[in-house]
Amino acid sequence: MLHETDDLFSSAWPDGPAAPKLVGAAPARALAYPELRYMGSKRRLLPWIHAVLDELDFESALDPFCGTGCVAYLMKAMGRRVTASDFLLFPSIIAAATVGNSSAMLDSGTLGRLLSHAPDDDFIARTFDGVFFTAADRAFLDRVSAGLRALDDPDRRAVGYAALFRSCLKRQPRGVFTVSGDLARYDDGRRDLRLSLEEHFHEQVEAFNAVVFSNGRDCGAMRADALAIDPSDYDLVYLDPPYVPRSDDNCYVKRYHFLEGLASYWKDVELMPQTKVKKIAKRYTPFSYRRTALAAFEALFERFARSTIVLSYSSNGYPDLATLEGLLSRYKSRVTVHERPHRYHFGTHGSVKRASVTEYLIVGR
């Protein structure tokens, strides 16, 4: 097994004080992808991921744990036929807006109709009073949600939802929906906390319109369980599952339940009204538990054994690197590990420490 330490930046930490100096730059289009405050996002690692992917021979790719969609979008910008998927609804909608969508944008006329649409319910205003956002923000969400649901074009609707999700992440303190209450107590002067949701939405519509493009290939997005996807149509599979951390948990629903509910206007989720932040019931995934994670990884490797496998992983996860290499070697004759230091940002308040880890790309061919 081959281990390679990749030095693509002048600083050991790409988000540290030293300005990064790219050795092999990713497509400029991919680097312009909107950065979402999302646990485990690989947005800052795109130049390194590109350098690894660019050495591999593939025309079609699957990203079944797409999250923010930035890696799937990178592969689209590389000219590949890409399918992005996630087991949560709201990330799959973001992928539909940016990966599956090749031409649809929210023009000024459509945007005007969205903003003037009459709400058909006040569910957000009622349910999240005193929990998230201001009264005006919640009324805006009820109104624009109704307008988005009324849109006939699914691609334009996806762009609108992507803009709305990022607006909520920017407006919400710390970018997660585990904290609630008066926004003023979190106000540290940042612009994101001072803009209204409607003001954010105008900006984010422009941001997501700007990344819509066609690469001439038939790209797509869907919501699916990675272990249920037909594996037969992909030269390469990029895997970034939610690994079990050494502390806390990897529950995306706990942190982003509001966005998952917003994606369907809480029609297809189980609301837990007794909880302080009005959580929704989380879906089971074997990647969240030590007792099931190992078998889940092996099932992934077996399912996609015919494709080149690129596994994104981190040194603070379970199982460890040696175990994953051993598992992948059962299905691949050549396993190469690329590694580099990285810092994750899980919040912006003073008590949050930067999580310094070694990031891995484990390639099986």
UniProtKB/TrEMBL annotation:
Keyword check for Cytoplasm, yes or no. no
Q: Which Pfam families match?
A: MethyltransfD12
Species of the source: Salinarimonas ramus
According to the UniProt entry, its GO molecular function terms are: nucleic acid binding; site-specific DNA-methyltransferase (adenine-specific) activity
| Keywords for this protein | Methyltransferase, S-adenosyl-L-methionine, Transferase
Question: Which reactions does this protein catalyse?
Answer: a 2'-deoxyadenosine in DNA + S-adenosyl-L-methionine = an N(6)-methyl-2'-deoxyadenosine in DNA + S-adenosyl-L-homocysteine + H(+)
At the top level, the lineage of the source is Bacteria
Q: What is its EC number?
A: 2.1.1.72
Decide whether keyword Methyltransferase is in the record: yes
Its recorded name reads site-specific DNA-methyltransferase (adenine-specific)
Biological processes per GO annotation: DNA restriction-modification system; methylation
Q: Which InterPro entries match?
A: DNA_methylase_N6_adenine_CS, MeTrfase_D12, SAM-dependent_MTases_sf
